[in-house]
Design brief:
The protein is an alpha/beta fold. It has helices at residues 31-46, 68-71, 76-81, 110-117, 144-152, 154-163, 169-175, 187-200, 203-215, 221-235, 239-249; strands spanning 6-11, 15-20, 52-56, 61-63, 99-103, 106-108, 120-124, 128-130, 166-168, 180-182. The structure holds octanoyl-coenzyme A. Keywords: Fatty acid metabolism, Lipid metabolism, Lyase.
Length: 259
Protein backbone atom coordinates (compact mmCIF):
# COMPACT_ATOMS: atom_id res chain seq x y z
CA UNK A 1 0.00 0.00 0.00
CA UNK A 2 1.26 3.52 -0.78
CA UNK A 3 1.57 5.75 2.27
CA UNK A 4 2.27 9.48 2.42
CA UNK A 5 3.51 9.98 5.97
CA UNK A 6 5.12 6.63 6.83
CA UNK A 7 7.24 4.08 5.00
CA UNK A 8 7.20 0.34 5.53
CA UNK A 9 9.65 -2.45 4.83
CA UNK A 10 10.52 -5.87 6.13
CA UNK A 11 13.75 -7.36 7.48
CA UNK A 12 14.56 -11.01 6.86
CA UNK A 13 10.90 -11.39 5.79
CA UNK A 14 10.13 -11.75 9.52
CA UNK A 15 10.14 -8.22 10.95
CA UNK A 16 7.84 -5.41 9.82
CA UNK A 17 9.41 -1.95 10.09
CA UNK A 18 7.32 1.21 10.08
CA UNK A 19 9.21 4.50 9.76
CA UNK A 20 7.39 7.72 10.64
CA UNK A 21 8.14 10.03 7.76
CA UNK A 22 7.34 13.72 8.23
CA UNK A 23 10.94 14.79 8.87
CA UNK A 24 10.39 18.54 8.33
CA UNK A 25 7.76 18.55 11.09
CA UNK A 26 9.86 16.30 13.36
CA UNK A 27 7.36 13.51 12.62
CA UNK A 28 4.47 15.40 14.23
CA UNK A 29 1.65 12.87 14.45
CA UNK A 30 -1.09 14.28 12.23
CA UNK A 31 -4.50 12.57 12.03
CA UNK A 32 -3.62 11.20 8.57
CA UNK A 33 -0.28 9.82 9.80
CA UNK A 34 -2.10 8.02 12.62
CA UNK A 35 -4.56 6.50 10.12
CA UNK A 36 -1.64 5.23 8.02
CA UNK A 37 0.20 3.92 11.08
CA UNK A 38 -2.90 1.97 12.10
CA UNK A 39 -3.26 0.49 8.61
CA UNK A 40 0.39 -0.57 8.49
CA UNK A 41 0.26 -2.10 11.97
CA UNK A 42 -2.86 -4.10 11.08
CA UNK A 43 -1.31 -5.28 7.80
CA UNK A 44 1.85 -6.57 9.54
CA UNK A 45 -0.22 -8.13 12.32
CA UNK A 46 -2.24 -10.03 9.71
CA UNK A 47 0.86 -11.16 7.75
CA UNK A 48 1.67 -14.72 8.86
CA UNK A 49 5.36 -14.32 7.96
CA UNK A 50 5.88 -11.38 10.33
CA UNK A 51 6.74 -12.17 13.95
CA UNK A 52 7.57 -8.71 15.34
CA UNK A 53 6.99 -5.07 14.37
CA UNK A 54 9.30 -2.07 14.85
CA UNK A 55 8.19 1.56 14.84
CA UNK A 56 10.93 4.14 14.37
CA UNK A 57 11.53 7.71 13.26
CA UNK A 58 14.69 9.49 12.18
CA UNK A 59 17.87 10.60 13.91
CA UNK A 60 16.42 13.93 15.08
CA UNK A 61 12.93 12.79 16.05
CA UNK A 62 10.95 9.68 16.80
CA UNK A 63 7.99 12.06 16.99
CA UNK A 64 7.75 15.55 18.54
CA UNK A 65 4.11 15.05 19.47
CA UNK A 66 0.68 15.29 17.99
CA UNK A 67 0.50 17.90 15.22
CA UNK A 68 0.03 21.19 17.06
CA UNK A 69 -0.88 23.05 13.86
CA UNK A 70 -3.66 20.56 13.14
CA UNK A 71 -5.00 20.86 16.71
CA UNK A 72 -4.63 24.60 17.19
CA UNK A 73 -8.14 25.63 16.17
CA UNK A 74 -10.05 22.55 17.30
CA UNK A 75 -12.98 23.16 19.64
CA UNK A 76 -14.36 20.89 22.35
CA UNK A 77 -17.06 19.84 19.88
CA UNK A 78 -14.39 18.79 17.38
CA UNK A 79 -12.28 16.77 19.79
CA UNK A 80 -14.97 15.31 22.07
CA UNK A 81 -17.95 15.39 19.75
CA UNK A 82 -16.23 14.18 16.60
CA UNK A 83 -13.21 12.56 18.30
CA UNK A 84 -10.90 14.01 15.62
CA UNK A 85 -7.63 13.68 17.46
CA UNK A 86 -8.03 10.55 19.49
CA UNK A 87 -9.96 8.08 17.37
CA UNK A 88 -7.00 6.60 15.47
CA UNK A 89 -4.65 6.31 18.44
CA UNK A 90 -6.04 3.10 19.90
CA UNK A 91 -5.28 0.76 16.98
CA UNK A 92 -1.84 -0.11 18.31
CA UNK A 93 -3.39 -1.56 21.47
CA UNK A 94 -5.18 -4.20 19.39
CA UNK A 95 -1.98 -5.50 17.76
CA UNK A 96 -1.18 -8.99 19.04
CA UNK A 97 2.40 -9.31 17.82
CA UNK A 98 5.14 -7.51 19.76
CA UNK A 99 5.78 -3.91 18.75
CA UNK A 100 9.17 -2.35 19.59
CA UNK A 101 9.76 1.41 19.55
CA UNK A 102 13.25 2.28 18.29
CA UNK A 103 13.63 5.85 19.50
CA UNK A 104 16.24 8.40 18.52
CA UNK A 105 15.91 12.14 19.06
CA UNK A 106 12.71 13.68 20.39
CA UNK A 107 9.87 11.53 21.72
CA UNK A 108 7.62 14.24 23.11
CA UNK A 109 3.94 14.49 23.96
CA UNK A 110 2.05 12.09 21.70
CA UNK A 111 5.46 10.82 20.49
CA UNK A 112 6.35 9.71 24.01
CA UNK A 113 2.86 8.26 24.40
CA UNK A 114 3.16 6.35 21.13
CA UNK A 115 6.52 4.93 22.28
CA UNK A 116 4.92 3.90 25.58
CA UNK A 117 2.07 2.13 23.75
CA UNK A 118 4.70 -0.10 22.14
CA UNK A 119 5.72 -3.20 24.09
CA UNK A 120 9.17 -1.90 24.87
CA UNK A 121 11.45 0.96 23.94
CA UNK A 122 15.04 0.72 22.75
CA UNK A 123 16.59 4.19 22.90
CA UNK A 124 19.51 5.70 21.06
CA UNK A 125 21.86 7.68 23.26
CA UNK A 126 20.50 10.96 21.84
CA UNK A 127 16.84 10.17 22.73
CA UNK A 128 14.86 12.74 24.72
CA UNK A 129 11.51 11.98 26.29
CA UNK A 130 8.91 14.33 27.71
CA UNK A 131 5.27 15.29 28.13
CA UNK A 132 5.39 19.03 27.38
CA UNK A 133 1.62 19.43 26.82
CA UNK A 134 1.33 21.62 29.92
CA UNK A 135 3.17 24.33 27.98
CA UNK A 136 0.36 24.30 25.42
CA UNK A 137 -2.44 24.58 27.95
CA UNK A 138 -3.43 20.91 27.70
CA UNK A 139 -2.46 17.59 29.26
CA UNK A 140 -1.36 14.31 27.63
CA UNK A 141 -4.29 12.73 25.80
CA UNK A 142 -3.03 9.34 24.61
CA UNK A 143 -2.35 7.65 27.93
CA UNK A 144 0.67 9.66 29.08
CA UNK A 145 -0.65 10.40 32.57
CA UNK A 146 -1.42 6.69 33.01
CA UNK A 147 1.47 4.84 31.35
CA UNK A 148 4.25 7.21 32.46
CA UNK A 149 3.63 6.73 36.22
CA UNK A 150 3.42 2.97 35.69
CA UNK A 151 6.79 3.09 33.90
CA UNK A 152 8.74 5.61 35.97
CA UNK A 153 6.75 6.06 39.20
CA UNK A 154 4.60 8.92 40.41
CA UNK A 155 7.36 11.37 41.39
CA UNK A 156 9.09 11.48 38.04
CA UNK A 157 5.83 11.31 36.07
CA UNK A 158 4.48 14.30 38.01
CA UNK A 159 7.75 16.17 37.51
CA UNK A 160 7.64 15.59 33.74
CA UNK A 161 3.92 16.27 33.28
CA UNK A 162 3.89 19.39 35.46
CA UNK A 163 7.16 21.03 34.37
CA UNK A 164 7.16 19.85 30.76
CA UNK A 165 10.91 19.20 30.96
CA UNK A 166 12.64 16.56 28.86
CA UNK A 167 14.62 13.62 30.21
CA UNK A 168 17.57 12.17 28.36
CA UNK A 169 18.14 8.51 27.52
CA UNK A 170 20.24 7.84 30.62
CA UNK A 171 17.57 9.20 32.96
CA UNK A 172 14.87 7.33 31.03
CA UNK A 173 16.71 4.04 31.35
CA UNK A 174 17.45 4.57 35.03
CA UNK A 175 13.76 5.33 35.59
CA UNK A 176 12.60 2.21 33.73
CA UNK A 177 11.00 3.85 30.69
CA UNK A 178 13.39 2.28 28.19
CA UNK A 179 14.71 -1.26 28.19
CA UNK A 180 18.17 -0.41 26.85
CA UNK A 181 20.28 2.41 25.42
CA UNK A 182 22.42 1.86 22.36
CA UNK A 183 24.72 4.17 20.38
CA UNK A 184 22.76 6.13 17.77
CA UNK A 185 24.51 4.44 14.84
CA UNK A 186 23.63 1.01 16.24
CA UNK A 187 19.96 1.70 16.97
CA UNK A 188 18.43 -0.20 14.05
CA UNK A 189 21.03 -2.98 14.11
CA UNK A 190 20.35 -3.71 17.80
CA UNK A 191 16.59 -3.31 17.48
CA UNK A 192 16.41 -5.59 14.46
CA UNK A 193 18.55 -8.20 16.22
CA UNK A 194 16.02 -8.22 19.08
CA UNK A 195 13.07 -8.26 16.68
CA UNK A 196 14.54 -11.13 14.64
CA UNK A 197 15.22 -13.06 17.84
CA UNK A 198 11.58 -12.62 18.93
CA UNK A 199 10.37 -13.60 15.44
CA UNK A 200 12.30 -16.87 15.72
CA UNK A 201 10.44 -18.02 18.82
CA UNK A 202 7.11 -19.86 18.81
CA UNK A 203 4.42 -17.34 17.85
CA UNK A 204 1.88 -18.51 20.43
CA UNK A 205 4.37 -18.31 23.30
CA UNK A 206 5.39 -14.81 22.13
CA UNK A 207 1.80 -13.58 21.98
CA UNK A 208 0.99 -15.19 25.33
CA UNK A 209 4.02 -13.52 26.94
CA UNK A 210 2.96 -10.12 25.58
CA UNK A 211 -0.63 -10.57 26.68
CA UNK A 212 0.38 -11.76 30.12
CA UNK A 213 2.90 -8.96 30.82
CA UNK A 214 0.30 -6.39 29.71
CA UNK A 215 -2.16 -7.92 32.15
CA UNK A 216 0.17 -6.83 34.96
CA UNK A 217 -0.85 -3.24 34.30
CA UNK A 218 -4.57 -3.70 34.05
CA UNK A 219 -5.83 -5.63 37.05
CA UNK A 220 -5.00 -7.04 40.45
CA UNK A 221 -1.93 -9.17 41.10
CA UNK A 222 -4.12 -12.20 41.84
CA UNK A 223 -6.01 -11.83 38.53
CA UNK A 224 -2.76 -11.35 36.63
CA UNK A 225 -1.11 -14.40 38.16
CA UNK A 226 -4.19 -16.52 37.37
CA UNK A 227 -4.25 -15.20 33.79
CA UNK A 228 -0.56 -16.04 33.38
CA UNK A 229 -1.09 -19.52 34.82
CA UNK A 230 -3.87 -20.32 32.36
CA UNK A 231 -1.76 -19.21 29.40
CA UNK A 232 1.23 -21.14 30.79
CA UNK A 233 -0.92 -24.27 31.00
CA UNK A 234 -2.35 -23.71 27.51
CA UNK A 235 1.11 -23.55 25.93
CA UNK A 236 1.59 -27.22 26.87
CA UNK A 237 -0.99 -27.95 24.19
CA UNK A 238 1.31 -26.56 21.48
CA UNK A 239 3.80 -28.43 19.31
CA UNK A 240 6.26 -25.57 19.88
CA UNK A 241 6.46 -26.43 23.60
CA UNK A 242 7.34 -30.06 22.73
CA UNK A 243 9.90 -28.85 20.19
CA UNK A 244 11.48 -26.25 22.51
CA UNK A 245 11.92 -28.65 25.40
CA UNK A 246 12.99 -31.60 23.24
CA UNK A 247 15.60 -29.39 21.59
CA UNK A 248 16.95 -28.36 24.99
CA UNK A 249 17.06 -31.92 26.31
CA UNK A 250 18.80 -33.16 23.14
CA UNK A 251 21.19 -30.20 22.97
CA UNK A 252 20.09 -28.97 19.54
CA UNK A 253 18.58 -25.72 18.19
CA UNK A 254 14.80 -25.51 18.33
CA UNK A 255 12.83 -25.05 15.12
CA UNK A 256 9.46 -23.51 15.93
CA UNK A 257 6.53 -23.94 13.55
CA UNK A 258 4.04 -21.67 15.30
CA UNK A 259 1.78 -24.63 16.02
N1 LIG B 1 3.47 19.67 15.79
C1 LIG B 1 3.64 20.34 14.64
N2 LIG B 1 4.82 20.78 14.18
C2 LIG B 1 5.90 20.55 14.95
C3 LIG B 1 5.82 19.86 16.17
C4 LIG B 1 4.53 19.41 16.60
N3 LIG B 1 4.35 18.71 17.72
N4 LIG B 1 7.05 19.79 16.72
C5 LIG B 1 7.88 20.41 15.85
N5 LIG B 1 7.19 20.87 14.77
C6 LIG B 1 7.72 21.59 13.61
C7 LIG B 1 8.08 23.02 13.97
O1 LIG B 1 6.93 23.85 13.93
C8 LIG B 1 9.08 23.34 12.88
O2 LIG B 1 8.38 23.62 11.69
P1 LIG B 1 8.84 24.87 10.76
O3 LIG B 1 10.23 24.50 10.30
O4 LIG B 1 7.83 24.87 9.65
O5 LIG B 1 8.83 26.08 11.62
C9 LIG B 1 9.80 22.03 12.67
O6 LIG B 1 8.94 21.02 13.20
C10 LIG B 1 11.13 21.95 13.38
O7 LIG B 1 10.90 22.28 14.75
P2 LIG B 1 11.78 23.37 15.54
O8 LIG B 1 12.26 24.43 14.60
O9 LIG B 1 10.97 23.82 16.72
O10 LIG B 1 13.00 22.47 15.98
P3 LIG B 1 13.94 22.68 17.26
O11 LIG B 1 15.05 21.70 17.10
O12 LIG B 1 14.28 24.11 17.45
O13 LIG B 1 13.04 22.26 18.52
C11 LIG B 1 11.48 20.81 19.69
C12 LIG B 1 12.63 20.92 18.64
C13 LIG B 1 12.02 21.17 21.06
C14 LIG B 1 11.02 19.37 19.68
C15 LIG B 1 10.35 21.78 19.31
O14 LIG B 1 10.01 21.58 17.95
C16 LIG B 1 9.10 21.58 20.13
O15 LIG B 1 9.05 21.99 21.27
N6 LIG B 1 8.06 20.93 19.53
C17 LIG B 1 6.79 20.77 20.16
C18 LIG B 1 6.83 19.67 21.18
C19 LIG B 1 5.49 19.53 21.85
O16 LIG B 1 4.97 20.44 22.47
N7 LIG B 1 4.91 18.34 21.73
C20 LIG B 1 3.61 18.05 22.32
C21 LIG B 1 2.53 18.34 21.33
S1 LIG B 1 0.91 18.16 22.02
C22 LIG B 1 0.68 16.49 22.03
O17 LIG B 1 1.48 15.73 21.59
C23 LIG B 1 -0.61 16.02 22.63
C24 LIG B 1 -0.76 14.54 22.41
C25 LIG B 1 -2.16 14.22 22.56
C26 LIG B 1 -2.50 12.91 21.85
C27 LIG B 1 -3.95 12.83 21.74
C28 LIG B 1 -4.38 11.69 20.88
C29 LIG B 1 -4.99 10.57 21.64
Amino acid sequence: MAYEFITTRTEGEKVGIITLNRPKQLNALSPQLMVELGQALKAFDADAAIGCIVITGNEKAFAAGADIGAMATYTFADVYGDDYITRDWETIRSIRKPVIAAVSGFALGGGCELAMMCDFIIAADNAKFGQPEIKLGIIPGAGGTQRLPRAVGKAKAMDLALTGRMMDATEAERAGLVSRIVPLDKLMEETLAAALMISGYGRMAVMAAKESVNKAFEGTLADGVMFERRLFHALFATADQKEGMDAFVNKRAAVFKNQ
